[in-house]
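writing this on my phone so excuse typos. first protein, seq and then structure
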Amino acid sequence: MADVTFYTNPMSRGQIARWALHEAGAEYDQVLLDFGTSMKGDDYLAVNPMGKVPAIEHDGKVVTEAAAICGYLADAFPDAGLAPTDDERADYYRWMFFAAGPVESSVMLNHLGWKPTGEQEATVGYGTYDRVMDVLESAVSRADFICGDRFTMADVYVGSQVDWGINFGTMPKRDAFKAYAARMQERDAYKAAKEIDNALIAEQQAAEQG
C-alpha cells in the first residue's frame, strides 16, 4: 500500500509536490484531476474545499499548498535527510516562505500587468517586483543551495519557483537564477518527477487533439 495519496494535474503546481515526493522517497498513488470538472466535484472538494491541486493525504491527514506539502514531507520521511539541521533552520523557513509569499505574489501580479504605486508598496507587503527579484537573486547566489552547501526540501520549493519563472518568462533570466535552476535540474528526483509529468501532459494534449 502506498504511503501517500497524491492529487494533482500535471499542468499545475502539482509538479512541485511530485518532485518533493520523489525527493522524500515516498510511495504514492496519484489521482489525476481536471481543472473544470473533477477538481470542482464533491469528492475532491471534501479533500480540498479550494478545489485546486496539489493535495496529499497521509496517515489520515490532508495537506494542501505546495510549500506546506514540501515541509510536511521533509518531516514525515526523515530518512531522506531533507529537513533542516539546527544551523539550517532559519534559512530553511525564511526562504521557503519568502518564495511562497513575496515571490509568488509579486511574480503573479507582475505577470498580470499590475504594479503597485509608490503609496501601495507598503500595503502589498513585498514592495516591488524588482526588489523581490533582487533579494531572491542574492539568496540563491550565496551558496549552491538555499541553506548553504546541502540540498534541503526548501530547495524543492524555491527551486521550483525559479525553474518555472525563468522557463516561462515570469522571472528575469539572470545568471544566478539560471545557475541555481541548473543545479536543481541535475537531481535524479527532479528528472524522474518531470519525466512523469511531461508524459502526462503529452497524453492530455494528444487526447485533446484527437
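second protein below, same order as before
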Amino acid sequence: MSAVITGTGRRDDLLPSGSELRSGFPYWMDSLRSMLRYDWGGMRPWVGMMVVIQTMMGAGMVLMYGFFYPQITTTTALYIATGAPTLALIPLGFVMVPNAVMMDKLHGTFDYVWSMPVPRSAHAVSTFSLFTVLAVPGMVLALLVAIWRYGIHLSLSPVLIPAVLLCALMSVTVGYALALAVKNPLVTNVIVNALIFVVLLFSPIVYPASQLPGWLYDVHRVLPFESMATVMRAGLTTGLATDVGLSFLVLGVWAAAGCAVTAWVVGRRA
C-alpha cells in the first residue's frame, strides 16, 4: 500500500509515485485495515459514553413503559423486555452515526478523510463495521436490565445472531446514508431528532402492532422499526413473534437501500 493511515490522522507516503498501483483486492484490504485503525483511534475516547447512552435509552424506555400499565402480564413483560435491544440500537444507528458524520462535516474532518489515498468504500465499510460492533454491548446491557426488572425468562434461539447483526447493520447503513445524502449538517440534525421522537412514540416496539390504527399498522409493515423488534423477539422468545421471514426481508431491503445510497453519494463525489 502506498500510504499508511495512523490513528492520529497523519498520512505518510511510503513509496514513490507510480511504484505501486492503488487498485486490487489486497490494496483494498490494506486500506480497510488502515481505516479501521484510524476510525477506532477517533472513536475510542467516546466508546464508553456510547454504551452508556445506549443502555440508558434502552433500559430507561423499558422501565418507563412499565409505568403505563396498571398490571403487567407475562406477555406484556415479554414485549417490553424484548423491545429493549431495539430501543438501545435505534439511537446509535439513527442518531449517533448521523451526528458523527455531521460533526465531521462541520469541522472539515469529513473532507479530509475522503481526501486520503484509500478507497472511499473502505472508509464506509470501516464505519459500518465499528458501529455495528459497538451496538452490541448497549443492547445486551439494556436487555439484562429489562430481564431483572420484569423477572422474565427468555428462550434463546439461533435466529438471535443474524437478527442482531442485521438490525445493527441496517440501522448503521441507513443512518450513514442519511448523513451522506443530506448535504446540510443542520438539516441532518433536524431530521434525526424528529425521527427519534416519532419512532419512540409511534413504533410498535414494546407492544403488538395490532394495537395501532389500520393505516399506521400498514405504514410500519414497510418501515424497519417493527421488523427490528420482531426479529429480535423471535431470537429471544418462542411463539411471540410472527411474520419473522417477512421482517428479515424488510430489514434486508432497508440495509441494501442504505448501502446503495452510500455508494451513489460516494460515486458522485469521486
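Residues 47-269 form one domain. thats all i got for now
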